């Protein structure tokens, strides 16, 4: 840390000199790196930095020198792009050089300019594991910081909301620890990017950045299911946390499901365009979607599921055949003529039994045709026939899912006053309102379809 200059005259002269030298203390490089516009050495460090992007691994490798990002002058390597307005930044970072330097640092930075004394806000992961929110509120002033009560975090997030900046950090798999500052004016147009600083004038450090995401918020007043934006298709490795972005589309889509051979995904088109309600098969090798023929069932929602053997597909179609209310249909997984299974509506399909003999779904029904509609869990033979009610009560039961061994059905319910996941004691007989019939599966609050992996572990 440097002691700030106390004399106003000396201070002005010092900063004026830096304003003159700023043009010589920023070295820009060859141009775009991944989704960033450019890279620069800020403050003319002795050791020049470098950056590269591996599109296959979707990973940045950045090397940087520099004495520090501190006091009133910075030296580091910066991979940046220009952004306006609000946004959220996230990455997973790891040093790749062995070093005893405790305050080498890497992270995200938002900067008013590329001048070495520019105002900025960043989230910095230090070599000793310290995680800090650092900021310089005005050009040439001393850097300030708040150290977060978490160490050795590798997931770093920085969000801008107007003049408020929120820093969040966590070890992968843990919850975020956060802090924020307000009333820091960096201007609307800013330089945003990843940085590496050696904290050693003659040294150089290296780090990798993966799962890099730059997200712009939706417009003010955005109404879900009325307003739409495009969609990203990502694959998450649940063991390592590795994220891979494989497809972007201006046309929104939902609920990707793996085919059993692992070569394709099936999803439904949403939004308000002419393709709303159609299904697509996404080829993972070609990274391209193709139409899936569902016959006259062309008003599909996001409740569609493949059978365990992968030969049949259950869908929820809300077309004119069922009064524009959702009903359950089945068809070959490769496409073809569908068969309507549930004459009563609304019915939302969720799971096949492992042997393919049963369908389970959520149905909204009135008691004896009168009164309020109650959503409960039902099952039906995949060959057709009468539906069998599995739950009762004046609450919402939703998202039923067979366990891969066929012994249980998982589902969500508001019966506790919160939407929570439950598991039935038996998947073959009625289970209803009593605690002996059900087991609370965890204590978290959720609002999504219950789903287990094929190995019944997750």
Total of helices:
1
Radius of gyration: 28 Å
The end-to-end distance, rounded to whole angstroms, is: 48 Å
CATH topology of the largest domain: Jelly Rolls
Task: Please report which band the strand proportion falls in: under 5%, 5-15%, 15-25%, 25-35%, 35-45% or over 45%.
Answer: over 45%
- Helix coverage percent: under 10%
Overall CATH class of the largest domain: Mainly Beta
User: Would you tell me the structural class of the helices and strands?
Assistant: mainly beta
Total number of domains: 2
* Name given to the CATH architecture of the largest domain: Sandwich
Shape: elongated
Mean pLDDT: 89
Please give the number of β-strands: 35
The profile of the biggest β sheet is:
8 strands, antiparallel
Low-confidence stretches: 1-24, 430-436
Sheet with most strands: strand arrangement? 1-2-7-16-9-10-11-12
Verbal overview:
The chain has about 450 residues and is mainly beta. It folds into two domains: about 10-215, Jelly Rolls; about 295-440, 6 Propeller (Neuraminidase). It has one helix at about 10-20, and strands at about 25-30, 40, 50-55, 60-65, 70, 75, 75-85, 85-95, 105-110, 120-125, 130-135, 145-150, 155-160, 165-170, 175-180, 190-195, 205-215, 230-235, 245-250, 255-260, 265-270, 280-285, 290, 305, 310-315, 325-330, 340, 345-350, 360-365, 370-380, 390, 395-400, 410-415, 420-425, 440. The longest helix is centred in the N-terminal third of the chain and has 14 residues, at about 10-20. Mean pLDDT is about 90; it is low at about 1-25 and about 430-435.
